[in-house]
Automatic annotation (TrEMBL):
Biased composition, class Acidic residues, residue ranges: 233-245
InterPro entries hit by this protein: DER1, Rhomboid-like_sf
UniProtKB keywords: Endoplasmic reticulum, Membrane, Transmembrane, Transmembrane helix
Compartments, as annotated in UniProt: Endoplasmic reticulum membrane
GO terms of biological process kind: cellular response to stress; proteasomal protein catabolic process
Coiled-coil intervals, chain numbering: none
Record family assignment: Belongs to the derlin family.
Record field: transmembrane: 56-78, 98-131, 152-182
Disordered as annotated region, ranges: 214-245
GO cellular component: endoplasmic reticulum membrane
Species whose genome carries this gene: Carassius auratus
Protein name, entry field: Derlin
Role noted for this protein: Functional component of endoplasmic reticulum-associated degradation (ERAD) for misfolded lumenal proteins. May act by forming a channel that allows the retrotranslocation of misfolded proteins into the cytosol where they are ubiquitinated and degraded by the proteasome.
Record's bilayer topology term: Multi-pass membrane protein
Length: 245
């Protein structure tokens, strides 16, 4: 049983596994009172004046106390993060991490002016938005009540958040940042006179992408001769054995 759970866990794509695990562990640490949300929230003054740099990351990891809202966010985060990583970003881990960085930086800049403390939900909406725009023809069903095309999903989630009495500023931020990434990555490069503006740094490819074999690779002549000599030697040995018999 334990081996099967571990095996299933390790089959989750690396970035999705790392991010969702960090979110769950952060929430568990708060529930166990090892840390408090006051040590995690986004506070520019503490970041700049007290050098509490970790707040740039931890504000994306806390989704509130255990409850319906936390489970709801975790399900959507895991589902759409994994589908992106296994879908349009399959074999492009560096590009996926760069998208994380781009979205996180942009949200942090907006957070400076919107007085937002935790940006994890906005990040989830961003992932949902990008996936929905790249899969426009998929039919969705929301709790058996609504049927719609995938691009409407972020807006349905925003409406659901509004019904629960939550502020929709976070959802709008996620949709806005997701649209900026989608436009720069998928739309603008395909326009007349457009070009690709988001280029993944080479260091990201070195760190996160597996090296690919060159299809045009050919062994050096000495390697080929070595192979042929080894093959000839084996044939000679075989012939010698046959002669002895």
């Amino acid at each position: 049983m334990a081996n099967s759970v571990t095996q299933e866990y390790m089959q989750i794509p690396a970035v999705t596994r790392a991010y969702t695990t960090a979110c769950v562990l952060t929430t568990a640490a708060v529930q166990l009172e090892l840390i408090t949300p006051f040590q995690l929230y986004f506070n520019p003054d503490l970041i700049l004046k007290k050098y509490q740099i970790w707040r740039l990351i931890t504000n994306f990891l806390f989704f509130g106390p255990l409850g319906f809202s936390f489970l709801f966010n975790m399900i959507f985060l895991y589902r759409y993060c994994r589908m992106l990583e296994e879908g349009s970003f399959r074999g492009r881990t560096a590009d996926f991490v760069y998208m994380f960085l781009f979205g996180g930086v942009l949200m942090t800049l907006f957070g400076l002016f919107a007085n937002l403390f935790f940006l994890g939900q906005a990040f989830t909406i961003m992932l949902v938005y990008i996936w929905s725009r790249r899969n426009p023809y998929i039919r969705m069903n929301f709790f058996g009540l609504l049927n719609f095309q995938a691009p409407f999903l972020p807006w349905v989630l925003m409406g659901f958040s509004l019904l629960l009495g939550n502020s929709i500023v976070i959802d709008l931020l996620g949709i806005g940042v997701g649209h900026i990434y989608y436009f720069l990555e998928d739309v603008f490069p395909n326009q007349p006179g457009g070009r690709k503006l988001l280029t993944t740094p080479g260091i990201f490819r070195v760190l996160f992408d597996m090296p690919q074999e060159d299809p045009n690779y050919a062994p050096l002549p000495e390697d080929q001769s070595g192979i042929s000599q080894n093959g000839q030697g084996e044939e000679d040995d075989g012939q010698g054995q046959n002669d002895e018999n």
